[in-house]
Write a structure and sequence with these properties.
Elements: H1 3-18, E1 22-24, E2 36-46, E3 53-58, E4 69-87, H2 91-102, H3 105-108, E5 116-120, E6 124-125, E7 128-130, E8 133-135, E9 137-149, E10 152-155
Parallel strand pairs: 1-2
Antiparallel strand pairs: 2-4, 3-4, 4-9, 4-10, 5-9, 6-9, 7-8
C-alpha cells in the first residue's frame, strides 16, 4: 500500500470509530465544526531487518521473448505511525471509542487484511492555543502494520549452460 492509500483507509476507520468528521493533516480550507478529528501521518519504518520474500517478474521484451531484465519486488513488513487528535469538548471520550474499536477484530475488519492495527498509545490532554484562545484537544498515537511491495527493475545474469565430459 502507498502512504496515501493507508492514510485514506485510516481516516475512514477513525471516522467510523469516533463518529466525527476526520480531516488529514495540512489540509487547506476552513476547519469543520467542533468536535472534529484530525489524523497526522508521522512516518513509517520496517518491522524486520530483512524482507519476508522477494517476488521476481521476468520481462519478455528481448529478442525471441527473452530478456535479461527482471523486476524484483521485496515484500517488506512496514509499520505506519499516526497521531490522532480530537478538537473540541469531550475529545478524550471520542478517543476512548478508538481504544474500544482497537480491541475488537470485527471493528477493524474494514482495514483488513491489508492493514492490521498493532498498537495505540495513552490518551493525552493537550489543549492548543488557536486564534487567541485555548481550545480543548485530546491526542493519541495509532500504529498500523502492513506489507509494502515496491518493484525495482534489475538486470539479471543469464544462467550459463555447463557441459561436463569425462576424460580418459
Amino acid at each position: 500500500m502507498t502512504e496515501e492509500q493507508i492514510a485514506a483507509a485510516m481516516v475512514r476507520w477513525l471516522s467510523g470509530a469516533t463518529t466525527l468528521t476526520v480531516i488529514q493533516d495540512h489540509q487547506s480550507g476552513p476547519r469543520p465544526a467542533q468536535p472534529y478529528a484530525m489524523l497526522n501521518f508521522l512516518g513509517l519504518s520496517e518491522v524486520r531487518e530483512h524482507p519476508q520474500d522477494v517476488d521476481w517478474l521476468r520481462h519478455q521484451d528481448g529478442p525471441g521473448g527473452e530478456s535479461n531484465r527482471s523486476t524484483a519486488t521485496p515484500i517488506i513488513e512496514t509499520e505506519w505511525r499516526f497521531s490522532a487528535h480530537v478538537y473540541g469538548i469531550g475529545g478524550a471520550g471520542y478517543l476512548r471509542r478508538v481504544r474500544s474499536h482497537f480491541h475488537l477484530a470485527q471493528a477493524n475488519e474494514p482495514l483488513m487484511p491489508a492493514v492490521i492495527l498493532s498498537e495505540i498509545s495513552q490518551i493525552r490532554n493537550v489543549p492548543e492555543f488557536i486564534n487567541g484562545g485555548w481550545e480543548p484537544r485530546a491526542q493519541m498515537d495509532i500504529f498500523a502494520r502492513g506489507l509494502t511491495r515496491d518493484g525495482v527493475l534489475v538486470d539479471t545474469i543469464e544462467t550459463p549452460i555447463f557441459e561436463f565430459t569425462r576424460l580418459g
